[in-house]
């Protein structure tokens, strides 16, 4: 359960998500880990990097980095916080270039220093970053394949770099196309997108299968639908606009 940003947690949301997944036949075969309860694990990973001088404290704000296109350079722009705020902690990326093969979108490459710079591992408010948390979580759970939305494709190089730096295995990645609204924006609760109906899951499941380019199946129960769909599923049919090598850079 990705609630590492405790400042944005909505009471009851986690339970609602798990109940909706269960209604769609998607239940975890292992206990659900909760990120907000795993700070000790994340702190241990950060300490490992700090001891190797691969992580450092940083007082740079987004405003400070605006002149650099939001990309943190190899050295901090400011030397300290005038108001006494605690620092964030960043990872030194050096001259790392990360190449990987995505299961849908093919060969990918990112030069970290140019694309994202030294990125945050723990924010100044004490919350650990998504990048650090998911890397530690995936390793602890023995995750071997990650399937997620294409909006996270440019996060993958940072996570692979962290995996290599921490001596953790790298899973296989497959990024799915996003369902967009009429304005070309991804559906999200922030934009008041309608939720899926857990009282009637099959219409949404059928729509998702068609969107992913798969053959239709007409089973009348969720369990049978998922069984048949999984047996017939062909990743080669998943649409992706980027089938060739793409350098993921902000420019």
UniProtKB/TrEMBL annotation:
Gene Ontology CC entries for this record: cytosol
Domain Glutamyl/glutaminyl-tRNA synthetase class Ib catalytic, first and last residues per copy: 1-65, 79-197
Q: Does the keyword ATP-binding belong to this entry? A: yes
Q: Gene3D superfamilies this protein is in? A: HUPs
Q: Which residues form a coiled coil?
A: none
One GO BP annotation here? glutamyl-tRNA aminoacylation
Q: Does the keyword Protein biosynthesis apply?
A: yes
Any idea which UniProt keywords this protein has?
Answer: Aminoacyl-tRNA synthetase, ATP-binding, Ligase, Nucleotide-binding, Protein biosynthesis
Q: What is this protein called?
A: Glutamyl-Q tRNA(Asp) synthetase
